[in-house]
Write a structure and sequence with these properties.
The structure is a single chain. By secondary structure, the chain is of the alpha/beta class. The chain has five domains: 226 residues, tt1808, chain A (Alpha-Beta Complex), CATH 3.90.1570; 187 residues, Rossmann fold (3-Layer(aba) Sandwich); 196 residues, P-loop containing nucleotide triphosphate hydrolases (Rossmann fold), CATH 3.40.50; 111 residues, Methane Monooxygenase Hydroxylase, Chain G, domain 1; 57 residues, no CATH class. The chain is 46% helix and 14% strand. It contains 35 helices and 26 strands. It has a six-stranded mixed sheet, with helices on both faces. A hairpin with a 4-residue loop joins β11 and β12. The longest helix has 24 residues. It starts with 5 loop residues before the first helix and ends with a helix. It is an enzyme of class 3 (hydrolase).
Amino acid sequence: MSVQSEAQLENELIAQLNTLGYANVTIKDEAALLSNLKKQIELANGLYPLSENEWKQVISFLNTGSVFERAKNLRDQFPIKFDDGSSKHIYFLSEDSTKNHYQVTNQITVAHRDFNGRTSRFDVTLLVNGLPLVQIELKKRGMEIAEAFNQTQRYTREAYWAGQGLFSFIQLFIISNGANTRYYSNGTKHIDFAFPWAEVDNKHINEITDFAAAFLNPQHLTAMLTQYMVIHESSKDLMVLRPYQIYAVQKIVAQVQQSKNNGYIWHTTGSGKTLTSFKASQIIMKMPDVEKVLFVVDRNDLDTQTAKEFNAFKAESVDSTDNTRTLVNQLDQRHDKLIVTTLQKLNRAISSDHYLEYISYLKDKKVVFIFDECHRSQFGDTHQNIKKFFENAQMFGFTGTPIFEENSQSKAGLKLTTDYLFNDCLHKYVIVDAIRDRNVLQFQIDYRGKYTRKGMDANDQSDEDVESIDTQELYNNPERLEMITRYIVDTHDTKTKDREFTAMFCVSSVDTLTQYYELFEKVQSEKKIADEQAGRIFKPLTIATIFSYSANEAVEPDNLNGLIDEEAADIPAQINQSSRDKLDRYIANYNAQFGTNFNSADRFYAYYRDIADKVKKRQVDILLVVNMFLTGFDSKPLNTLYVDKNLKYHGLIQAFSRTNRVFNDKKPFGNIICFRNLKRATDEALALFSNKEAKKVVLVPAYEEIKQDYENAVEKLLALTPDYQSVDDLHTEDQQLEFIKAFREVMRFNAQLQSFVEYDQDQTKLNKQDFANFASKYSDLCREIRKTTKKEKTSVLDDVDFQLDLLHSDRINVGYILTLLQMAVDADSEEKRKKYEAQIHDLIGGDISLHNKQDLIQKFIEENMPKMINGQSVQEVFSAFWDVERENAYQRLCSEENLKPEAMKTVLDNYEFTKRLPRQEELKDLPNFKVGIFKRESVFNDLLNKTRQFIEKFYVGL
């Protein structure tokens, strides 16, 4: 039986779209597209044929701005001034699908914008009122869907902006190979953000025919385009909601329309609850019977992330101050329907008679509350106060970890569960779903430090025996704490990919935290001396901490329900002076490190916010905490959590989830290093918040298991190609395809193993040099296939997504380029030399990390390579060349910017010592002139940019 071709897949899809209500239209080029657009706009708006002058107004309005600006124009109305002097507002996209006209066409040909004679043809285009709003790219069954994604990326660069740029109106892309189908918004840069459509129970709809029926019918597609996309003002990007987010919004909206009941959304931590809640708020606020929509967060979360996100969606919807009067003024503004506030400020507003005259009108109005992270702060008096004041309130909560009977508290004989407070669970999307969809990462858990009773062999001791050794005397033993500190200092770079990522360390109490902080100082001081004596460069870890210094701090509370006792980022009413004194010292260290001026008194909350910001910017290596930041804090570059604290249920999942935000290819999972045996607690938490089999999905296999998979993959590779030179003997495309897939598996498992301290690639059957040699062959083959693809040669290798990011992420830098140059110099044939040179040109032109060095590397190749003497090392010649170029650029920078050379040298020496880019305050001594007070900000901003550019060009990535 023959395999369905791409053309057959395309024709069958078009036939299906016809049955869904799309009219066929033949459009082969831009002229036909423009002609059809004019007719469709006239038809949709009930216009007579527009004159040339009238049409020019419309096309001039449409052909303006970026993808982002055109998306806004699409949803706007445009006033046409007719030749007779009258005018009318016309629309381009209606929220009512019956007022739009839907067409389908295929194989539109567009000349490239660079006028090089090349053209691109697009598979299937969906037109709404004549505008190309959805582009579908297909690949035949058996091909990898990533190739369709890559094709849309190429078209974005080369073709969509050609001519009038009408293809820049694309809002959604659909890619499919028949068996797998994904959608994503225009501007998406990585295939990880291409989503499958799903049913309400999160079951994927992959087959193209099923996807088309569910997603591409005009009613649903119109809702996707008008309701479930976000025009993100701060980043100037388009965003589209994922299926579970849309179902949650729909469920909340339906509950508001049809019922007075409350409800909650169970969406796992890291699944984008803020975007979901914003969309729900945006739709609900348009309902005429809803007076206000209040999005309520805990104060600790507002300034760090929610405020920025909500203000990006709706300008000035958030007031981040502590001033309750500001909230009252917002509530008093009858036209302002969406308000974002904190639970604490809302409680003060409704509990004070002083504000009653301004907000009493809301008591019997329909007010919809949406609570972020409703597993927290909802079981106290505040929740009841809100219910008493707002008599017609409807409440909705979002949580990643609901409170069930197993992890609930009792009050007056009642089990205070999430169901009890919010009635119905309207939609579920648990951690197993999110990991399957690659919306969050798995966890890789190391349990370090197994304790055995004296006289008992460790192999004979059960987990139960180990867990029963649970005493403060053991845990607080100074020898144990120092051992853990040394382990972290020694292995931190491995866990965080040489500090590309950051970490948190959660401990049991403030007393333990202070011991650890001082141990980090001691251990790093000793390491600095040892490194300097051995001639090694010492790179200190930046340790920061924040904690509450309230009196009567719990030592190690055994919270049966697993809820983490939230530490307020406020000054406590009653303080523990000893803890406060120590915190003041730690804040002083922080101020010295970063040039700030925080304290534990009036600037404590500002310190809280700043430390959150610096963790996100990777300026803090390890954040040492008790409870703060373990819930509600999101930082994508944070990949590691050290744990010396008893966690269970809700608290365990919340704490672990700080590490599992998707970031880039170097972050395959979240690292959890437990210095206590939390295995049983982890299994119980996963069973409670997902299902009994969750750990098979949520947890990365053990090191030994991945290592075995890696070795099996290496054996398969070596059976096919015993050494890298034998790759040249793979003459057929089928053989080459087999090699590509085999080596790709080796790369995948090798990338996973890189985060394990135990892993030493040189002790495997494929050492680092062998791996590099195979990688070069893999890259060569990739380049060859890309070249033949451009010539439109049909090849089985067109079906392959080469996933070069797996190589680039760890190895593509100047050192790698020099290795290839040396191989070119040492090549035993002209053909091989040209191959290596071509690969080098591809890499320096295509890898973003080399863009700022591209001109110098090219200069070295052109000017120095031909002069090289036999036996000379490329590394030696390049080093001398680089030193000269760097010195010339250094002198030029100092001269052009009128800087003090000795001060600049100090800045550069500091970078070489710390490997941290300079901050603005560190450049105050650079100018060789007096900087006026009104020009200071702009001068130092410019100087900071130029200094960092110089460092990144001449020091980073060598």
